[in-house]
Amino acid sequence: MTILQTPFPLGWQHYLFGGLCVGGGVALLFLLTGRVGGMSSVFSSTWSFVLRRPFFQQPRLVNTRGWRLEYALGLILGAFAWWLWRGGGVPETTGVPWWLLLVGGFIAGYGARLGHGCTSGHGICGLGSLQWPSALAVLTFMATAFLTANLVTRWLV
Description:
This protein is an all-alpha fold.
């Protein structure tokens, strides 16, 4: 088994293709509209439909929620199209317990709010536009992810 097969038992090519699609899509969105396609803004702007708290009623969220929902729908439809193109079948599952996924989701959501953006916003859009704060955020995200993955692996195994 080669070094690339160990961390990527199903191959690495589809990850490369997916990354190129995401990066190309974000670049195209910016070039054609001047808009930045980070996902934490999509999440916050969607909540502005139902939550009347001042944070969610900011003009930058309320005035952009239409195109952000279309953007999120495009990501979902793109993933569905990829699944169909790969032959459909049974979706992949995980052995991680549902409660651990829920806890991880809350921690990730809190981190996105605390870091003023998510990994896609800072890692793809921020680094792509050479933003120094995004570089620091990505380094923090990655260090935390490496540490957490190692701790959880040792805890669960």
